[in-house]
Amino acid sequence: xxxxxxxLFLIYLLIEISFAKAASVDDGLTSxxxxxxxxxxxxxxxxxxxxxGDGASGQxxxxxxxxxxxxxxxxxVESAGARxxxxxxxxxxxxxxxxxxxxxxxxxTGGWSKAGLYFDVVEGIFNQVLKKNDAGDHFPLLAICLGxxxxxxxxxxxxxxxxxxxxxxxASTLQFMKNVNIEGTLFQRFAPELIAKLSTECLVxxxxxxxxxxxxxxxxxxxxxxxxxxxxxRDENNKxxxxxxxxxxxxxxxxxxHPEKNAFEWGLSMIPHSDDAIQVTQHVANFFVSEAxxxxxxxxxxxxxxNVIYNYSPTYRGKEGKGYDEVYIFTEKxxxxxxxx
Length: 341
Prior knowledge:
The protein is an alpha/beta fold. The protein has a single domain (46-331), classed as Rossmann fold (3-Layer(aba) Sandwich). It has 11 helices and 14 strands. The protein has helices at residues 2-31, 71-78, 93-100, 116-134, 146-156, 192-200, 214-218, 221-226, 261-264, 275-292, 301-307, and strands spanning 45-49, 51-52, 66-70, 83-87, 106-108, 141-144, 163-172, 175-176, 204-211, 227-234, 240-247, 252-255, 315-316, 326-331. The chain has an 8-stranded mixed beta sheet, with helices on both faces. The chain has a 4-stranded antiparallel beta sheet with strand order 2-3-14-13. It has a two-stranded antiparallel ribbon with strand order 7-9. The chain starts with a helix and ends in a 10-residue tail after the last strand.
């Protein structure tokens, strides 16, 4: 009888000790989870501007009003914790404006179009970016390749400022300007070892036929007053061009190279896919989205869900072994040619 009671007592003690340990573990976990930073928006949304065409020289869609976004840009943004709303360039201006009011930052992609409606829309959105920042909303812009070239044209007020370079399907280095300060730039997250490798190893992808030399850039007052040069690169003929710039006063960054390709594109033979190259992609994406988290634009959830990229499906075209692997194709009624936001 007493032995039975003693066994029950021991079981009771073991249960109590187990509960006490569990409670102490729970308390420890709770105490290690700090409150979220109230200065940041943890549900950022990026608007990516579509480009004329289907991204496949008409093989996927020959509609005259078609436009596309390469899926690599979407994956690039999503990998850093943001959602994407496509800004379809030839939608009616009021529709495009309403979508612009749903996002916390904008990305201009690569491509070829430098005139007409597309140029006007890029210029209009760029002006909106400046206005939003001037009004107190931290609203970043990342311009890649063609986006870099278009901003160069818009800011310089010279549509003929670009020069010919031979940098198609080329992996390259980035040469940092002497005494450049990378704090507050897209390179701020890079470890010193990776910064050093960028100058000696081909970790970035170039795919362009136009650019701007440091001499031409520095000779234009508008460009020099808006941007500071962070890096330069050399084309296949050893000609030097500006490859990374950062605005002095706005969260606007422009790169002539393609940070999205290293991790998410396979169609071009010279895209770097090493561990270091993938880190380059991830650090740039993280920087851009971290800038978007500083925007407190908080649109209605339903409007966001009605417009996010998940409402569309990408088309696979990687079997061709060149160009983009996947693209989102949009067909919208064209807006009037003369477009000013």
